[in-house]
């Protein structure tokens, strides 16, 4: 994995990633870490893996959510996409594979997934409500937090060979 291996390196940083993965594995996917930690971990690893590995991580993370949570996440994504003029598949289902592909497609355009999961449809970029690049409102939804934490944790887990 090259860059990801360098990022995971060794010592303290590797231990911090290992701790993050353990917390993800032990509880509900949206609990056990701050919004800022999820954003940092996701930001550090998500764009460092090929599309297929990201898609697999997204599918696995979504599969860990209950069907009701996935349906809620899909609905939230559709509402936010519509509010921002982003085209999503018309009949998006809460199936982990299909929803994972939607996330992967959104992820391919840097910032698009972050923008969609960011503050509610009323906030405009650069306003106080949007916070630092949307981070403040991004994880106001436990479903968004669960999805992004899961993707980051699974990417890291695979990089560490766990």
Q: What features would you describe in this structure?
A:
With 162 residues, this protein is mainly alpha-helical. It has one domain (3-159). 65% of the residues lie in helices and 0% in strands. The protein has 9 helices and no strands. Helix 2 (11-26) crosses helix 9 (142-159), helix 3 packs across helix 9 and helix 4 crosses helix 9 (142-159). The chain is globular. The two termini are 14 Å apart.
In short:
With 162 residues, the chain is mostly helical. The protein contains 9 helices and no strands. Helix 2 crosses helix 9, helix 3 crosses helix 9 and helix 4 packs across helix 9.
The biggest beta sheet reads: none
**Class of secondary structure makeup:** mainly alpha
Beta-strand level of the residues, as a percent range?
under 5%
Extended strand count: 0
Could you tell me how far the N terminus lies from the C terminus, measured between alpha carbons in angstroms?
A: 14 Å
What form results from the Cα inertia axes?
Answer: globular
Run of helices and strands = HHHHHHHHH
Quickly count the domains: 1
Instruction: Pick out the low-confidence regions.
Output: 120-138
Helix content: 55-70%
Count of helical stretches? 9
Radius of gyration, CA atoms, in whole angstroms: 15 Å
Mean pLDDT: 81
């Amino acid at each position: 994995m090259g860059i990801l291996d360098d990022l995971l390196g060794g010592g303290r940083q590797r231990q911090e990633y290992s701790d993050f993965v353990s917390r993800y594995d032990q509880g509900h996917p949206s609990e056990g870490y701050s919004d800022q930690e999820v954003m940092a971990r996701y930001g550090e690893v998500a764009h460092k893996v090929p599309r297929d590995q990201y898609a697999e991580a997204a599918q696995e993370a979504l599969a860990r959510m209950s069907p009701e949570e996935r349906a809620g996440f899909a609905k939230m994504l559709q509402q936010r996409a519509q509010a921002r003029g982003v085209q999503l598949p018309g009949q998006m289902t809460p199936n982990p594979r299909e929803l994972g592909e939607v996330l992967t497609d959104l992820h391919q355009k840097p910032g698009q997934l972050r923008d969609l999961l960011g503050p509610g449809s009323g906030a405009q970029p650069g306003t106080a409500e949007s916070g630092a690049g949307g981070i403040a409102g991004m994880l106001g939804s436990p479903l968004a937090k669960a999805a992004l934490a899961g993707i980051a944790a699974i990417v890291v887990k695979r990089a560490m060979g766990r």
